[in-house]
């Protein structure tokens, strides 16, 4: 088992082929296995080895957290395809040096204690993965709400705007901005969940207060 010499072009090709259908060296999350292989590479793989380059850039992003990644770092020869000869010189036939593999064991007979520990760790991982909250896409929007004239009650206009309530909509700070001839517009901030609230809906609801509102424009729109 092994990748061969990962500082050579041949070794990198073996790594690239190995990662063609895998995201990580072992399992389904970044681990010490990825760190061990990453540290054996001299630098980023060439662009034509895009599986290896994709994996390299991803693991590089964990540089500050690498010590906290799960697993126990093993000899480099313990990773990689089974049909490639290990040329790192770090491999050993001694079973005394083998680390416990929580995702599987090479021993013909697995002790009950090791089996129980592996099953508990796998159950904990699956539980954490299922409870991980989905990422909610949000945007911060700055709206310009313009009145009909300088006699429009701007306090009432703002009250009308803030009366609009919807799941995924939170109103923020506001201020009155002069636009000329004694007229002021309401500039108001809001945060929305992109899947639930859009600018078209906001415009439709705000301009429905036609006794106060002449028009609504989006002054700024930023993803959070």
TrEMBL record:
A Pfam family per the record: EF-1_beta_acid
Alphabetic keyword roster: Elongation factor, Protein biosynthesis
InterPro entries named in the record: eEF-1beta-like_sf, EF-1_beta_acid_region_euk, EF1B_bsu/dsu, EF1B_bsu/dsu_GNE, Glutathione-S-Trfase_C_sf, Transl_elong_EF1B/ribsomal_bS6, Transl_elong_EF1B_B/D_CS
Database matches in Gene3D superfamilies: 1.20.1050.130, 3.30.70.60
Residue span(s) of domain Translation elongation factor EF1B beta/delta subunit guanine nucleotide exchange: 138-224
PROSITE patterns for this protein: EF1BD_1 (PS00824), EF1BD_2 (PS00825)
Listed CDD domains: EF1B, GST_C_eEF1b_like
Presence of the UniProt keyword Transcription in the record: no
Molecular functions (GO terms): guanyl-nucleotide exchange factor activity; translation elongation factor activity
Domain Elongation factor 1 beta central acidic region eukaryote: 102-129
Record's keyword annotation contains Lipoprotein: no
Compositional bias of kind Acidic residues: 95-112
Region feature (Disordered): 83-114
GO CC aspect terms: cytosol; eukaryotic translation elongation factor 1 complex
SUPFAM superfamilies: eEF-1beta-like (SSF54984), GST C-terminal domain-like (SSF47616)
Similarity comment: Belongs to the EF-1-beta/EF-1-delta family.
Assembly description: EF-1 is composed of 4 subunits: alpha, beta (alpha subunit of the eEF1B subcomplex), delta (beta subunit of the eEF1B subcomplex), and gamma (gamma subunit of the eEF1B subcomplex). Interacts with elongation factor EEF1A1.
Function according to Swiss-Prot or TrEMBL: Catalytic subunit of the guanine nucleotide exchange factor (GEF) (eEF1B subcomplex) of the eukaryotic elongation factor 1 complex (eEF1). Stimulates the exchange of GDP for GTP on elongation factor 1A (eEF1A), probably by displacing GDP from the nucleotide binding pocket in eEF1A.
Protein name (database record): Elongation factor 1-beta
Origin species: Peucedramus taeniatus
């Amino acid at each position: 088992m092994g990748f061969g010499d990962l500082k050579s072009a041949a070794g990198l090709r073996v790594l690239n082929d190995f990662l063609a259908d895998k995201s990580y060296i072992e399992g389904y999350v970044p681990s010490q296995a990825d760190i061990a292989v990453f540290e054996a590479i001299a630098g980023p793989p060439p662009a034509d080895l895009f599986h290896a380059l994709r994996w390299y850039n991803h693991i590089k992003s964990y540089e500050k957290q690498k010590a906290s990644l799960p697993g126990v770092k093993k000899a480099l020869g313990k990773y990689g395809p089974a049909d490639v000869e290990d040329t790192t010189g770090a491999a050993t036939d001694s079973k005394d040096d083998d680390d416990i593999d929580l995702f599987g064991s090479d021993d013909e007979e697995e002790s009950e204690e090791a089996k129980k520990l592996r099953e508990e760790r796998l159950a904990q991982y699956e539980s954490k993965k299922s409870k991980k909250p989905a990422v909610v896409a949000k945007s911060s929007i700055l709206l310009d709400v313009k009145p009909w004239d300088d006699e429009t009650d701007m306090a009432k206009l703002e009250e009308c705007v803030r009366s609009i309530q919807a799941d995924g909509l939170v109103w923020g700070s506001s201020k009155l901005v002069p636009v000329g001839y004694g007229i002021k517009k309401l500039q108001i901030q809001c945060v929305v969940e992109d899947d639930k609230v859009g600018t078209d809906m906001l415009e439709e609801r705000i301009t429905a207060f036609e006794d106060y509102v002449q028009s609504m424009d989006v002054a700024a729109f930023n993803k959070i």
